[in-house]
Amino acid sequence: MAKRIAPLLPPLERRLARLGERIRTARLRRRLSAKLAAERAGMSLMTLRSVERGGMGVTIGAYVAVLHVLGLDSDLDAVAQADPLGRDLQDAALPNAARTKHAAK
Question: What is the domain-level CATH number for residue 24?
Fold first, then answer.
């Protein structure tokens, strides 16, 4: 039975495709063959090709493995780190007295 893949909105598909392109460009800049990069990432050549195309059926772990091989996995530390919207929502849920104390810090 084939895997079901939840459809992404077109802007998200384009974002994933751009990520795949950047991954491929990074691999080529390092002069790594696709075969060697796939081997180091512990995946098939077909999976690496899917990552480089921005395939949405590929696990996030596969993307992380390739980024690690390329020395780019530390970039993931910045994902969702700041979260200003989340902080604003959290602060809005605080009682007024706590919000005043929190804002003063």
Answer: 1.10.260.40
